[in-house]
Amino acid sequence: MPYADWAKRVVFIVGNGLRADLLFMKNGFVDIAGSPDIVAPYLRSIVETRGAWGISHTRVPSETRPGHVAFISGMNEDVSEVTKGWRQVGIDFDSVFNQSSTTFAIGSPTVLASFVPGAPPDKIQIWKFDPELEDYTKDATQRDKRVYQTLEAILRNSTAHEDLDRRVRADKTVLFLHLPGLDITGHSDRPFSKEYMMNIQTVDDIVEKTENLFRQFYGDDDTAFVSTADHGMTPIGNHGDGHPDSTCTPLIVWGKGVRGSLPDSTPSSHDAYSKQLGLSHLLRRDVEQADIALLLSALIGTKWPTNAMGMLPDVDPTKPGYLLPNQGNRYMAQAALVNAQSTVEELGQTQLSAIETLIDVGDHYQARLHAMVLISATYDAPVILGIVVSAYIGWIALCAATVLLPASKPSDAHGRVWRPYFVSTTVLAALWSYFASQDSPLEYYAYAIFLCYFWAKAWPWCSSRLWQLSEYPYDKFMVIGTIAATQTMVNVKNAREAWCFKAVVITLICGLASSTVLVYLIVGSLRAKRGVPLILRTPGWIILLSNGMLPFIVRVGRSNPSARLLSIFLGVGMWFLRVAVSVEGVFYVAFALMLYLWVKVEYVWHRDHPLGSESKVKDEEGCVTYQLKGEDLGIALFFLLFMQIAFFGPGKIGYSSFYLDLVYRLISRYNPYLLIVLLMLKMFAPFLILALTFSVLHARLSLPPFNLFVIVLALSDVMTLTFFLKVRHVGSWFDISQSFYDFCTSSLFVLWSMVACIVAELLMRRTDHRSSMGKNEGWVWHRH
């Protein structure tokens, strides 16, 4: 589509880790002596006089890779890709860079290298600084200044190189400036520090110099500028979660083809977040991060990236967009049609034809409105929702039937066993036929398989036991009470309570004196911005590995379980405290004491209420097994409660309460794999202590291994199903991301606890659980 206001080139500036509120807000650093009233005066003047602005909302995880993929490719990459790092996995799909005549990318090597493998030859020219400069303990503004110096050198040297000069001056050129300083400064010094404030000032100065440089070099005003960030930063220097501090990033667009500043609309476009910025008199136009890719393409008139799922802000006819409206509503309606065509593909051809008809008859407003609805539509959500919910219920029923019901087969097994399989097969065939007609993804077929399999196995047991609930009200109340308890955990999960009192002081590290001196020396080196020298890092690793691994390596015969638990508690506590902060160390001790008391209470209760003959049943082969009773559900509920305490007690991972500066004692340069390992070790420590305690409790109460854990799985899935039904795709950005986080966290509980229980069984297999308690009623399970 011809567009007279296309820019010849676009400069895309990304401030890695830049918070929107700290960029726009007046007196954002009021606690810093001598701080200016406006920290970024040049960017703010653009917002107030000649640019369009808003908030770009990132998706969870609010990390560097997903953010860059979103605003360069127009799609939200699968979240699992964030675990694969930058260097190993390139961006193997289309992007704005691929559609440009040439893209000149300058910045961090960990970011730029990912966009080269999938691009056409010579399409992307990259200039990256030395990876050794990515040191989190040194002045980060030098990286940003290096980016501008490189840009200046490219334009200066282009006059002496014909091919470079031709590429630089060609139309549809993209110049990508990645400024990594704010991310490094935010992690090491926190976003409310003087260093972060000075880094914002550096970015503001670079933006001003860049615009002046382009005006002088090209001698025209045909350049468009887009400034944004990949993610924000929490007050403790982290990101990745769904909090507005991490997901709200600034978006400022100005230059050729961009509308200027507009007065605020009625009703106001501002909420509580932006009212504090002092820009309430100007229109705020928010976008999703993936929408920026389409905006970049529209500014220079290139094709949109293939499979882009964003929406051009100007598609919505009810709000002003970012482009100049000089071409009238017809152009905007055609742009909306192209956006819809690239998004829905084969789906919705009838709707696309209706939009074309509206354009032909001149009803451009309705055409844009229909396109916006079509782009935002979901098609398979109700069907998949029903399948997943039914599969969850079937799985829960199967778990309960496997453990709680008698070992013999249901009464109708020989007469009507074919019925559930016939019904399940019929349902499976119907679902597969529907998916085939819709050309659905392969994972939909897997969802249907799980649904039908679970119910085929669970229904014979459930149908033979349903009538018994009416005869035994106690069982009915037990089931209702258990489900109610899981829902209570759902509702109170966000509370982070103080689970301990100031009565616990214990020495966990034998080398406490040497560790104290070591930490003192490291902190002094970090404050002086000298980094952490090798002579200080090496002892830290030696102390961590030697003390932390000793209990897992050294064993002496068939040990006492209490001694075994204590040794692992001290060893695990060693590496937990190395990455702990504030009262987290006290939590670890208090949590272990609470588990110890739990074992004592359960043992005394079962000792005073010995097992009756009804708990010992024979299966079809004549083997004596333990039949769980209603009272045993209490143990499973307590374990589920302690699981949540173990996860949320040290700090809610959804709000990134993991202080990276504590890791600087061990590493100082960017190493995502090592950072993840240290974080996982910290999270795993309370789970391991819980699993070890659960293993001891199983044996001391003479319970078959893993029987209660199967019940825990079923109860966990009751919570997971609740969170699944609470997942939102409308509302505030925080509510949407938080609902996804809740569901994913609850889903991972099962896997996380399963791994911990397996490890605990392996660690406790050579302990004699009778040695500390005398003989027990019933059977005694040995670990060999």
Description:
This protein has 784 residues and is of the alpha/beta class. The chain folds into four domains: 9-271 and 294-310, Alkaline Phosphatase, subunit A; 317-377, no CATH class; 381-471; 512-763, no CATH class. Helices cover 54% and strands 7% of the residues. The chain contains 28 helices and ten strands. The protein has helices at residues 20-24, 41-49, 64-73, 96-99, 109-112, 141-158, 162-169, 181-189, 194-218, 244-247, 272-275, 291-300, 328-344, 349-360, 364-376, 381-404, 413-416, 418-438, 442-471, 473-492, 512-527, 534-553, 561-578, 584-608, 632-648, 672-700, 707-725, 733-763, and strands at 9-15, 51-57, 102-107, 124-128, 173-179, 223-228, 248-255, 287-288, 616-618, 624-626. An eight-stranded mixed beta sheet has the order 4-3-5-1-6-7-2-8, sandwiched between helices. The protein has a two-stranded antiparallel ribbon with strand order 9-10. β3, α5 and β4 (124-128) form a beta-alpha-beta unit. α20 (473-492) crosses α27 and α25 packs across α27 (707-725). The protein is globular, with a radius of gyration of 31 Å. The model is unreliable at 469-474, 492-513 and 770-784 (pLDDT under 50). It is an enzyme of class 2 (transferase). InterPro entries: Alkaline_phosphatase_core_sf (IPR017850), GPI_EtnP_transferase_1 (IPR007070), GPI_EtnP_transferase_1_C (IPR017852), Phosphodiest/P_Trfase (IPR002591), PIGN_N (IPR037671). Belongs to the PIGG/PIGN/PIGO family. PIGN subfamily.
